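Troubleshooting log. The previous structure file for this entry was overwritten by mistake, so regenerating from the original sequence record. Sequence copied from the archived sheet and checked twice against the printout by T.R.
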Amino acid sequence: MEDFQPDLETLKKIQEECGKKINETDVVDVEKVRFVGGMDLTFKDLRSNPTEALVSLVVVDTQTLKPIDVVIKHTKVDFPYIPTFLAFRELPALLEVYDKAKIKPEVYFIDGQGKIHPRRCGIASHFGVETGTVSVGVAKSHLYGKFKYPCEKRGCFSYVKDPKTDEILGAVVRTKDRVYPVFVSVGNNISLPSAIKLVLKTSKYRIPEPTKLAHNVLQKKRKQLGW
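Regenerated output below.
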């Protein structure tokens, strides 16, 4: 498996087709959303292939910001680590947990990019298009596009735009005063203003509670496994 080299040109076309299928209109009323699922992955060895992975889904009640359901799966990954093609490595693992929660999320936050991607389809969009769910990309770092940092106050945001077309791809959102912002973009079935609103609604610190808690349960499990 170490020598496996995917056909990147074919995968680029898949991403471009995925990007065309993204729905950027609200299919849910974000003011009434009660349950948000946060999804995250961690790998035993990030750059090895194949390798083992842990994937989590934590369902959070937006009224309390407390977790009400947790799903963790130990799985294997057999696609190489290639920047901007991470969805092909991560999506199968996400699909293993997404429908396993006892309380179904109305919206899924994924630790990664949605439309902020050179071909308009990061992991959050792949997931949302594949499952037909409402998904939002909440990334901790910049991948693509031009932007200016927003003001230092919680709630400030600025747009991330395509450097070639000036199209708005997402937003840089300040979730806590004077703390480095997060990169929010549409995954599927939601508008960017609604995605930003929901991220702020579920954030106490820098990272929104759904994806922060999903990350935390994985770190705890890593220690238990001795990774």
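The mean pLDDT is 96. Archived copy saved in two places this time.
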